[in-house]
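pasting for ref
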Amino acid sequence: MQYNENELKEIFSKFLNDKDGTFQSATPYGSGHINDTYKVSFLLHDKPKFYILQRINHNVFPNPKQVMENVVRVTHHLSNKIKERGGEVEREVLTLLPTKEEEKEDGQVYYTVVNGNYWRVYNFISDATAYEIGADSNNDDDDDESEEQTQKMVHVREEAAAAFARFQRDVSDIPPPRLHETISKFGDSSFRFQQLEEAVEANVAGRASACEEEIKFCLARKEDAYTLIHLLQNKSIPERVVHYDTKINNVLMDDVTKRGLCVIDLDTTMPGMAIYDFGDCVRAATALSAEDEIDLKKVGFSLSSFDDIVRGYLSVAHTFLTKVEMDHLAFAAKIVTFTIGLRFLTDFLSG
């Protein structure tokens, strides 16, 4: 859904208005496909300042209020951690802007509801970049320029993986109560397997005969689909607060230090398995092609990229992961990728 600048100005005025400064512009921002995101330019006390204005997609997140309760708790907790170690709070964690006093409802001051849509504002983090890791970044050529780019991407993968591990470490002691599950059974591979079984049985679109080999492949791996959830249920691995969307571009890299600076896109942060985050990072960062590539000759896995993720993640995570979690890291990478396949095949069978 797209909004014109006048609409965006009106929504933004719930956070900052003409009494504070001058609204200058709002333009679409980023590559996300879930929420509607805009970069706002605002003259605050005669000084230019930027913000991120974002509409929460309530079709994906049916309870935006719970999403925001999680985000507020997590960002406040991270802010305290960063202060304790002498970091830059304004750059190392997302900072929500409160609504104007007259807009407060039920004590929730970090979002506003306009025409049934939930909106929030973050301070914009300057001098930082979110890198897109795609197929091209895994292609090694002999010329100096591509070798330099290859080394840059090695560093980006390592730093991003380390940043996700720091995130897990820093939120590990967030006080009770338990965070909300913003999307039910989000990281449960057994649930996705059950959905596939039901889709195969129903065959509502009459497509099962067109993908018999794929169905057979998946159904033969039922035990794999249940492995991680069984480990969690029998407490062989601990439940942790996790990010659940660990794509490389969800880490901002400092343009000066080149270090992983800030983990963003916190809407799926909820209770889960730390090794799922690792597996999802591997899935997203090691693929040699896009998810929807139809030429299977281009589909593959970059072992060197996997090594980068392992080095970066374990540089931090080795301090808090249990032995059972460590033993299942590689399996998690496989099963998270398998789970995405289960989802896609289920969608195909369901029409």
